[in-house]
Amino acid sequence: MKAQKTEYPFRNPALDREARITDLLSRLTLDEKIALMDDHPKIPRLGLEFSGQVEGLHGLALGGPGHWEGRGKIVLPTTTFPQERGLGNTWDPALMQRIGALEGYEARYMYQSPRYDRGGLIVARPTSISRATRAGVAAKSPWAKTLISSAP
């Protein structure tokens, strides 16, 4: 986020999450809310620039030759794990928890550090990207099977 850090209540880390979210949503126009569904959303009047093209199917995918990190920004290495179908076949919920915790740590490090100025971080629940209508069926993700994704 590039604008004034505490001009708006949603920027104040001392407030609880619900208050910050409520404040931010109250300031967004309908068009801005729709724009947030883009692959690299920005709301310049509020100083918001969010990440785009980031996923964590088997490690935080950020940077590299595809320039997902955004050209001109610092490329930071992230941990890569076996493809999601291999991870799902371990049937090891504790391992999946550790992998998810590490991905979360890396994402927070990159997106909350003022040094890298990457903007906001939006985290969504796992989905089966592989089964998306427009993508056809590619590699299977562990979330494609209810039994695997419901493991504690």
TrEMBL record:
UniProt-listed GO biological process terms: arabinan catabolic process; xylan catabolic process
Keyword hit for Hydrolase: yes
One Gene Ontology MF term: xylan 1,4-beta-xylosidase activity
Keywords: Hydrolase
Keyword S-adenosyl-L-methionine listed: no
Family from the record: Belongs to the glycosyl hydrolase 3 family.
Protein name in the entry: Uncharacterized protein
Taxonomic source organism: mine drainage metagenome
Phylogenetic classification of the source organism: unclassified sequences, metagenomes, ecological metagenomes
